[in-house]
Design brief:
This protein is of the alpha+beta class and 404 residues long. Among the domains are: 127 residues, no CATH class; 132 residues, Histidine kinase-like ATPase, C-terminal domain (Heat Shock Protein 90, 2-Layer Sandwich). The protein has ten helices and five strands; from the N terminus they run H-H-H-H-H-H-H-H-E-H-E-E-H-E-E. The chain has a five-stranded mixed β-sheet, covered by helices on one side. The longest helix is centred in the middle third of the chain and has 83 residues. The relative contact order is 0.06.
Amino acid sequence: MTSTALPAVPLGQRVWSQTWRVAVAALTGLLTAGLVWPTMDTRGWSDLHVGALILGDVAAGLAALVLLPFRHRAPLLITVVIAALSSVSTLAVGAAAIATVSLATRRRAVELAVAGAVLLGATVLYDVVLAPPADDMPLWQILVAGVVGIALLVVIGIAIGQRRALLLSLRERAALLERDQQLREDRAREQERAHIAREMHDVLGHRLSLVALHAGALEYRGPGLTPDETAAAAGVVRAEAHSALTDLRDVLGVLRDPAATGGDEVTGTAPPQPTLVDLPALLDQARAGGATVRARVDADGAAVPTAVGRHAYRIVQESLTNARRHAPGQPVDVVVEAVPGPGVRVVVSNTLTDGPAHADASGHTAGHGLRGLAERARLVGGSFRAGSDDGHVHVVEAVLPWTP
């Protein structure tokens, strides 16, 4: 797992964080001095000796408080220096305690061993040599008290360090989850855009190819047509263009607010997508456009799952469009078989022409549509192939699963 940097702490918060720690260290040092100084055995000490001890205690304590805010720059060094200062100053005890806790949050055994040894040595030096108590406490008691106190500081520091590590881990996990969610959303948007592109290609390509076919025929045969025939051909062009605009509105409906998607502007419901039930109308439409379509449909369109039926319909639709574009005038054979278990099998074949493949008005050849058909089959777990086995007949075959 990659490390996630802690968020930047505002300057005011950093100043307050250091201020209250120095204040606690100073207060702890004063309380310690108030408890220790009255119990010191000063018999036989001159006033100069006592004054020097107090002055040195205060100076070392102030030095420790000044060093405390810099402990993060060199944790071990600062802790060792402050611990050493506590050997001559009770006022430095609070700073030494906070520095030790801070060092323990790093949870490094060698550092803790070094700092603990220095702090324990400073405690023994102060209590045994520099300012022994009047009640003459045995050395072993001083050692035990020192070890227990240092161990308590280390335990507190380790607990704080573990809590910080846990918070950092949770922050990293939240960041990873957020990135993962963003990636999922990006993938969903990409899939939606691909879906829209497929729908626009299949639906509009079919409609516009019919418009182009009839418009071309009207242009070619126009001078020899009667007014009624011209009007009929123009009506077909107008109807197909209107249908193309309607289909475009329906497809782009997925980009709008769900409450206003597609078709019905009153109810706000999306228009139904075509399935195998609508296949006969599609075939009749192709025949009305002048194509020779021989079809064998062995399928109960109403029984086929909606998603599978929709993809099967689009495969037939795009195959008819490709045949009309790239093999105009050639008959097209359509076979659709749907059986639960084996699945839905769609085969569309047509004789190849001798000329090169024609591009549509946008400059795209059949390859773009075939890739879309292959993607449709893949989305439902099916198989797809397209091509010519003998160089004379182009075959599109798709098998879509239908689990009973």
